[in-house]
Write a structure and sequence with these properties.
By secondary structure, the chain is an alpha+beta fold. The chain is built from 15 helices and 16 strands. α2 (32-55) runs antiparallel to α12 (283-289). Residues 1-5 and 128-132 have low confidence and may be disordered. It binds fe (ii) ion (FE2). Fe (ii) ion (FE2) binds at residues 203, 205, 344.
């Protein structure tokens, strides 16, 4: 972790800070149970709609075909559903053969560099310890497959489409440029047939404790904290690009991502331990306010701890879990995307059938914060180091066949803030 320049410092007494914030918010809200009721009422209409779709055997995830994004012909109903659900599956984002070729080239890349012999085990404990001699998440950032996908026109087209759901201008300020995207180099996942996995519980990324304690996040959620939930818009970009996560732990995100996402490199069946979300962006309001209720100790935020993803569980967030919705079957080249506040997780699986291979590629729009991090990444790219947000594993440093600066196209160069 070299990237401390923009990071917040974790308070020395986290419990005292939490208690102080809760006292302040309670004063501003006056009647916390009434606010929570209002939030629940709003969420219930979404949860009911999701449950109805599940009863009909459908996924609540909206789907859109890449061609319609490219041609600007996505219909109004689909656009409205993406906005309501905060997530989407993009079908045929890349041709099947292209995605399968990338999958194979990733294998060739790690094999040609004897990665199995070099692998030293998981470099972080962000999600607890997944003991394995072979990784599930490969700390590989600079392969040809990843870079070709990141700098492709198809990726830029989808990222711009996704950015456009956000309000880039508000409070008299332009917060980001939805037509510009910066690189956020992340890892790949390769999960072989026969895998047994406990999955990952429901959580959100993009900060945990920060969502209560960091001033910029308090601005993001200003309408909720000021007892004005009706005004709260999860798609308002105001202050999002000013949030800096704590300089602690091993996995943090230094950029503003409009959407997190991954691109499938294999067929992934919906009953094989896959991604689910609670597809309601405003559910974050419930997560934020629930700890202010009397039954939660003053220094607690319902299980939130520094250095960990924000957990959502049955004890505190039972109502939200009713909205849990699994992605539909994915084909190689399909991609999946979810709003940065969206609660998500990975279902457990026993004896997984088929592979489960993905490249994590999010949407990080044009703003100073994202540009600054992209420029830091350019240095890691040039030297084959792990990007600053990730554990300092640096496997690719000596790998001669990693992607090179001269292999970048115009999109790729721009994405590094050039
Ligand atoms: Fe996550």
């Amino acid at each position: 972790m070299n990237n401390t320049s923009t990071a917040q410092h974790l308070p020395t007494d986290v419990g005292a800070e939490i208690a102080a914030v809760k006292k302040d918010w309670r004063q501003r809200i006056h009647d916390v149970p009434a606010l929570l009721d209002q939030i629940v009422e709003h969420l219930e209409s979404d949860i009911d709609a999701i449950e109805r779709e599940h009863q009909q055997g459908k996924s609540a995830w909206p789907e859109v075909d890449f061609k319609d994004i490219e041609q600007g012909s996505v219909d109004e109903a689909t656009l409205a559903k993406i906005k309501r659900r905060g997530c989407v599956v993009v079908r045929n984002h890349f041709p099947v053969a292209q995605a399968q070729a990338w999958d194979q080239s990733l294998i060739d890349y790690v094999d040609s560099n004897n990665f199995d012999q070099q692998y030293r085990g998981p470099g972080d404990n962000f999600f607890g310890s997944l003991s394995a001699s072979k990784p599930e998440i490969y700390p590989i950032y600079w392969s040809g497959a990843q870079m070709e996908a990141r700098q492709s026109e198809r990726m830029a087209t989808v990222q711009c489409f996704l950015n456009s759901f956000w309000k880039a201008e508000s409070e008299g300020k332009t917060w980001f440029d939805p037509n510009v995207n910066y690189i956020y180099p992340d890892r790949v996942r390769r999960r072989p047939p026969g895998t047994n996995s406990n999955g990952l519980g429901p959580h959100t990324d993009a900060g945990s404790l920060e969502r209560w304690l960091v001033p910029a996040y308090q601005q993001v959620f200003r309408h909720i904290i000021n007892d004005n939930f009706a005004q709260y818009d999860p798609w308002d970009g105001a202050y999002r690009s000013e949030v800096n996560e704590y300089a602690c732990g091993t996995t943090r995100c230094s950029v503003f991502r409009t959407f997190q996402g991954w691109t499938a490199l294999s067929d992934i069946k919906r009953d094989q331990g896959v991604l689910f979300s609670i597809p309601i962006p405003a559910a974050m309001a419930y997560v934020l306010i629930r700890p202010l209720m009397e039954d939660v100790p003053d220094t607690s935020l319902c299980g939130v701890a520094p250095r960990q993803a924000l957990p959502v569980d049955a004890k505190w967030h039972d109502i939200l879990l009713r909205g849990k919705s699994t992605i539909p079957d994915m084909a190689p080249g399909d991609s999946v995307w979810w709003h940065c506040d969206l609660i998500h997780g990975v279902a457990p699986v026993k004896d997984q059938q088929g592979w489960g291979n993905v490249m994590y590629i999010p949407a990080a729009p044009g703003c100073e914060k994202n540009k600054r991090y992209a420029q830091q990444c350019a240095k890691s790219f040039a030297t084959g180091l792990s990007p600053d947000d990730f554990p300092e594993e640096h496997y690719e440093k000596e790998w001669g066949n990693r992607f090179r600066w001269e292999d970048l196209n115009a999109i790729g160069r721009q994405s590094f803030g050039e």
